[in-house]
Amino acid sequence: MNPAQGLLNTSLLLSLLVFRFCISLDTISPNQPVKDGDILVSKGQTFALGFFSPGNSGRRYVGIWYYKVPKQTVVWVANRDSPLNDTSGVLSINGHGNLVLTGQNRSTPIWSTNASVSSTNDSSAQLLDTGNLVLVLPDSQRFTWQSFDYPTNTMLPYMKIGLDRRTGFSRYLTSWKSEDDPGTGNYSLEIDPIGYPQVFLKKGGTPLCRGGPWTGQRFSGVPEMNHNFVLNYSYVNNQDEVTIVNGITDPRVLTRAVLTESGIIDRSTWNKDRWLVFSSTPKESCDMYKECGPNSYCDPYNPDKFHCTCFPGFEPNSTRDWYLRDGSGGCVRRQGVSTCHSGEGFVPLARVKVPDTSIARADMNLSLEECKQECLRNCSCTAYTSADETRGGIGCLSWHGDLVDTRVYSNAGQELYIRVDAVVLAQYLEKKGLLKSKKMLAVLVVSVAVVLLLLVSIGYWLEEEAGKAKVCLILPQYQHIFKNLHVV
Q: Do 124 and 160 have their domain in common?
């Protein structure tokens, strides 16, 4: 072999080995930084980390994306609000044991993990198969920082969203500004701990869509969680934290929830060559926060009817606005009635997203019946329901004021019990009793019809056997039934 040719082959082999080593590495160490053009790949080759330019932008960002998905799908961005204008970027471990991103000026970090690291010599950063980038102390394997604590627009399985009550630290999603700019956008998805905790989609800090409180199986305003074929959920609400984590039933499935630039939460799975969206929120007007005003509910299932309806015992605050299909003013209790120790009671409304729980009271030690009695004794209590739907309903949620942002669903939701005056209660009970009477009447009619049919059949059979005269002799007591009956 030509010596020059052999040297060339050796050089190519070494280049391939070095390239393979670089793309298979999942760890950044003090001696092994990541430069623009290099990538880290998680051990199972699920995720990759490196530099990228989104959309039509020429700016450079450090991000994490799915390694085996042909269309680059970014799930996390480090320097989302501090992009690089060239390819000089380097991601490395600095002398303080933190992960830092620098550009042409190596002494001035563009982005840093800024974690408290006790031992600066042993720090390393590893990309896990969950998509989590972690800063690790090898001697203890303790995470001193993780990207899952600082999500951008994507929620991945095993990522925690919510509040650490001990430190006040909150994890939440924020949208990109645009497809070309991953900077912090206008929309956020977070758990609001005020009152009885609930999930909110917000725009500029203002509620846009309310997912409601946790019901033991799902968030009250996210009925799709009942039928999820990919995810399972772990919700915690105690003195230390209020958080939710999505688990996954099949580790081979790639799934994500993305808060888009337009304020839509899309849940999707990867199938062959594309992302299949199986759930989007909000998707209709009744999903929007306060689409119908206080003491009314939104019903999108009757297109011929105004979608806002007053609760039982209430009437429109403005009949003109209601006539013009403007339900924002909501409803007020009917004039001249009393709901305080005057024979009042409760009327159920089925399949609802419960009202805003920021002013609700919760007592997990009460049964539903005890909740009813407690609400009945307190004249300021306007409604109640179970705090947890599991085990037949446990805990008590009660409202003491206006009922805000309620809607109904076709095949999901809870039963909400609304306080009404004695007249409305009597009307409801009368209607309920009338329905029972109609059912009994229907049963009676069917029974009589069956008996008559049986008698006719007996008569016909006897006539065939012995003739009409014999039938009349044998059954004289039934002659009045058959005298007008003609058998063909």
A: no
